[in-house]
Amino acid sequence: MSRGVYGTRRIQKDLEEEGETISRCRIARLMQLQGLQCKYQKFLDDHGFECSMSRKGDCWDNAPAKSFFHTLKTELVNHCQFATRKEAKLTIFEYIEVFYNRQRKHLTNGYLSPTVFEEQTLEVA
Prior knowledge:
Blueprint: H1 8-17, H2 24-32, H3 37-46, H4 63-75, H5 85-100, H6 114-124
Helix pairs in contact: 1-2
């Protein structure tokens, strides 16, 4: 199944919906300050978030994201000039939801689109 990605903006938004106020800078400081990793992990756990940071030297967690953004830039963004931020958001959304997930064939999925691959995986299970 697909999994969501939680950055500092998402954490801040979700906490505000729960009636708590915390700045993205504070969240980032919690992440950066040495010795506070445990407090940060507890903070995330207390608010229902699952942290996806890898251990030192484990590059596998970030590889799919880096690969996706490289593909997005080389196949779309580097070839477009957007007049507004709204236009960029709409174009990128359409690329991801219409083309990348439903039509584009992926080597790691046996040359199937992610949608077809996920459907087939769920049928087998």
